[in-house]
Amino acid sequence: MTEAGPSAPRKLQGYEFFEKVLGNPKYIVAPMVDQSELAWRRLSRKYGAQLVYTPMIHAKMFAEGARKPYRNEAFNIPEREEGGAGDRPLIVQFCANDPDWLLKAAKIVEPHCDAVDINLGCPQDIARRGRYGSFLQDEWDLIYKMINNLHNNLSIPVTAKFRVFPTVEKTVQYAQMLERAGAQILTCHGRTREQRGHHSGLADWQKIRAVKESVSVPVIANGNLLFYSDIDTCLAATGADAVMSAEGNLYNPAIFTSATDAALYTPEDSSAPANWAITSDTGLHLPHTTLALEYLEIVNTLETRTSPSAVKGHLFKLLRPAMARETDLREQLGRVRFQKGKEKEAYAKYEEIVKQMDERMRRDARAAEGRPVEELITIDPVSGVKVLPHWVAQPYTRPLLDVDGKKLNKLDVAQVANVIDPTDCETEACGAKRSVSERTPEPEVNPKRAKLAEDNVNPIPLSA
Ligand SMILES: Cc1cc2nc3c(=O)[nH]c(=O)nc-3n(C[C@H](O)[C@H](O)[C@H](O)COP(=O)(O)O)c2cc1C
Q1: What is the dihedral of CA 264, 265, 269, 274, to 10 degrees?
Q2: What domain of life (predicted)?
Q3: pTM
Q4: Which of 126, 134, 341, 460 would be a feasible disulfide site paired with 193, CB 3.0-4.6 Å?
Q5: What is the mean pLDDT of residues 368-396?
Q6: Rounded to the nearest whole angstrom, what is the distance from the C-alpha of residue 359 to the centroid of ligand 1?
């Protein structure tokens, strides 16, 4: 353990850390491989995110430094933007299965973030093979050592993100062990390790509540958020201190903006149709093309390189409500190719395509001008979820299967007030370097690559 000298600043813990360092955040963007990168973090913060996590970083690969490209791509320190003034508060997430490698990796990012998080939730086969994420759920001694080593030897706090167990009792014992080891914030994803892919089902908010009631550090609730309006329901049901969103944020980066804050974000452009942004009881829904263009502008102005697969993934998700109509533009987006060192040329092509989409969306919004908002919002017959006009950012929902493989009916769904996209496993690409097109095969994707995704094949060896 490092001796704290007389002048060493006191390390804040638990609620004191949560309030004084993190600013008591309520709206948190999840760690997302290849998707919670710097550019996306900036966009999300602009629209209300109060704390953001980096994508999961493989601790050993990062610490070894032998693979320099990996280190800089995972967290770029030389450009001084990641973890810099516009990128705080920030928590850097690692996956690991060795306390020493984890500490080495954490020491590198220690001056550039507010805490270090350990991923104990990844359910993918790649995590099973690499022995990390939710597959450490059975190795409590190892988890204890990893957390405790960071707790004792880092100048910033350690936090943990985990999935629930099938029973409340085991979940609570586990959370208490994480707290005893030294975790200063617990993020509880209310799904079990088995709830993945089409069997993702709904997150269990009652288990999150049980965790919250059994520990004394702040608890962040994760799972089942589609709309801004779900946030208070989740906080009330779980008693958690804050909510974390992954997919909801990807499809609508303004998920943390309430309808009453909408005026703050009214597009400056006076020629915009009157219904260009939609505010309803679900929250604020900005035109997805506006968000996509803002995102591309951030990507272009950063010195830090944004991975092409991250950009592509974001554009496909943001523009999704319009993709089925504008198939020619979808194909054009899919055909953009990146040449190393010439990424800006590809981003310019993306911008051109998004601008064309923008014109078409304005045309459609204009055609609907004068109709009341309620008339423009429909209900998806399968999921029971509200569907907003196709020119605004909104959640993407698919039919759900429960853990027994039965299709959830409308009533099940309505009772929970929202349906969650069961892609936790397809898109929870805890394999550090898979491209988005491999994870979420879009129609244009090469079948061989789609097969790789199904098989969870990762081009980078992850065994630590
Ligand atoms: C694209 C994508 C990438 C993800 N990557 C990570 C990750 O790096 N680390 C992690 O702990 N969870 C990861 N997850 C899981 C999310 O953090 C979150 O726990 C899960 O999606 C449930 O939240 P949601 O219901 O808001 O989507 C990822 C999820 C998505 C959709």
Answers
A1: -100
A2: Eukaryota
A3: 0.88
A4: 134
A5: 94
A6: 33
